[in-house]
Amino acid sequence: MRRRIVAGNWKMNKDHVEGAALARDIAAGLAARPSSCEVVLIPPFTSLPAVREAIRGSAAKAGAQDISAEDEGAFTGEISGRMLRALGCEYVLVGHSERRHIIGEGGALLARKLRAALRSGLSPVYCVGELLGERESGAAEEVVSRQIREGCEGLSPAEFSRVVLAYEPVWAIGTGRTATPKDASDMHGAIRRLIGDLLGAEAAAEVPVLYGGSVKPESAAGLLADREIDGLLVGGASLAADSFLAIVPR
Ligand code: PGA
């Protein structure tokens, strides 16, 4: 049985006071209606202490949106994995499309960030996905394969066992356009085959592969019903407790 995870990526939304209120509401909702999935809240760095406090004793876990590739030292503005662990984070996003395509982070840097997460005991949620033009030209699988290789090739089975993958087609993020369960499922299957080639059958069978991109309460159940889709990475709809809780399955 693979781990199933529903994670809310708050992006650059909610200050620490607003974040604590949202996290309290989500924790209360989960207490009233437990989920079979792991639920992970991924607020901005500055809200992490308040969110952790708000979810203390609940089933929800905390994650960060980014991590330095370095462990310590003269790297102004960076946040290390150890700092995130000290705040109780268990997960960290690596390679979210906004960091790839807006901030300009490339494959080599993301591979180092992924390894920094593993060194510090975090589970990296490594995000991959193609641009609209790449899908339209038939290059989606090639792009996603390249991103997976850049991040995961060369990891040991023990290291890879803590990696979570997230397929987020860039054209679906924040656009209201969701991939169909079939499109997502096909890509998840391709990702799993590639992991099998790179890291072996056990790694392929066990790695959770999440889908992200305009997931809403109306689309969540259909996506989660597919056996290739092990969970969801939710942006916009994770910013209100009622819509996020409506996505989290029982
Ligand atoms: P969205 O964001 O749900 O708002 O499309 C998903 C993501 O970027 O992780």
Description:
It is a single chain. With 250 residues, the chain is of the alpha/beta class. The protein has one domain: TIM Barrel. It contains twelve helices and eight strands. The protein has helices spanning 16-32, 48-55, 81-86, 97-103, 107-119, 132-136, 140-152, 157-160, 181-199, 201-206, 217-224, 241-247, and strands at 5-9, 38-42, 60-64, 89-94, 123-128, 164-167, 209-212, 231-234. It has an eight-stranded parallel barrel with strand order 1-2-3-4-5-6-7-8, surrounded by six helices. The longest helix has 19 residues, at 181-199. The chain is globular, with a radius of gyration of 17 Å. The mean pLDDT is 96.
